[in-house]
TrEMBL record:
Domain Major facilitator superfamily (MFS) profile: from-to ranges: 41-500
Subcellular location: Membrane
An annotated GO BP: phosphate ion homeostasis
Transmembrane as UniProt keyword: yes
One GO cellular component term: membrane
Identification of the protein by name: Major facilitator superfamily (MFS) profile domain-containing protein
Biological source species: Erythroxylum novogranatense
Annotated InterPro entries: MFS, MFS_dom, MFS_trans_sf, Sugar_P_transporter
Amino acid sequence: MDPVAETSFENEHKPLGIQFIECIRRRKISYKSYQIVVWVVTFFAYTSFHVARKTLSIVQSVLDPETSEVGLKFSPWSITYVTKPIGKRRFLLVLGDGWSPFNGAEGTALLGDLDLAFLSVYAFGMYFAGHLGDRLNLRILLTIGMVGTAIFTSLFGVGYWANVHNFYYFLMVQMLAGLFQSTGWPLVVAVIGNWFGKKKRGLIMGIWNANTSVGSISGSLIASATLSYGWGWSFLVPSLIIAFVGLMVFLFLPITPESVGANRDEDITKVSTEKVEDGITEPLLSSDSEEKEKAVGFIEALKIPGVAPFAASLFFAKLVAYAFLYWLPFYISHTAIDGKYLSSESAGNLSTLFDIGGVVGGILAGHISDCLDAAAITAASFTYCSIPALFFYRSYGHISLTLNIALTFIAGTFVNGPSALITTAVSADLGTHSSLKGNSRALATVTAIINGTGSIGAAIGPFLTGYISAKSWNAVFIMLMITTLVAGLLLTRLVVSEVAAKVAESRTLT
């Protein structure tokens, strides 16, 4: 291609922000710099999705301040619990007695319906978003998804100022918000896949996966801080944030190296190389210039060893994780800790410790899996450990604030660790399984199957919690522990296989 024409083609596909930076610097951006830009922009893009997603869980206790007293009055297991609220909760003096139609006898169930509607549309929309992402411009599609999310998140908050009390208004807004949010994960993963090689990135990928927890923490803090001004602001501020990040995506996110004329080979020559057995050097960052084979179909990807059990396990793991994501602030605000009830703002802030534990758990699970080369063993171990963590949190979390903080962090570490591992390292490994014979186009399909199945569980978890909590929070925690046990048992065959492989390997070495 003529150099002038090639430069013109590159500029047509370069984001405007990239063009501006290169104009100021008067030279092209290096491939490594592009990778940093992609990592940072996609990290904050998905973080902002979770900022918007977390809001409703914080506002729930204001919309429905009096519901679930029956369930909250039951003593946890056989331990004495505070049975009656100690006076009016402080936030009720500021924000009133709830918001119709959520402050009635069916308020908790209605909030559960909103969670179910949002996450159901989100789960099934993810499959279609991935399909569109392979055929349309990822940057434009992701921008549309973020702007759409901002619009419908803000429309939920508009209900506060417009004095809307129609349940179906909030239901439709949540469903449309879920549809646009479903573009997030498959598209940011697709962009990351375009810019980084197939080899596991270990700690780097573990840190990148923390975007969900960082988003949840930020969303909790932002929603809690704005709650005292009126719950509508708790939706408006996150919507402005995701709209701004969406603008950054449009201006700065390069989709593929080819679209911006980034030359991977120029950077590879600067990267250290590692020796292979025959003496030939191999770059640490492998080129993706190999000829791509025909994309793997859904059924064929599902037959890859490990995909089905990991997907099924993630279904139950995310059911538990999202039950906490949506209902933990509500649970804390309705639970007496050391004889006192926390305000909605304080409960929201305290719930972030679960997400902080999730960040640690995700990185720790990924690191252990890399060291042991045993993803199933690691995921199952974390899953089984989360059962006693949930039991101790429910049984002893009310004794003191310090103990509650510690138990919340521990529960977040073990509950979120397996989900983080399966959605990143495991998905990447299975997407490049040896049975595919080098087919590099299976990664997106495998990721969609695993994460889409997990998202269905994420939709069911808050829904079940909303209904069961109206009767008893004891029953909620029993359900969560049984679900966690099932998630671990589904990995049994894979754990046995990995143990057998380790035993055979040790015998060979001896």
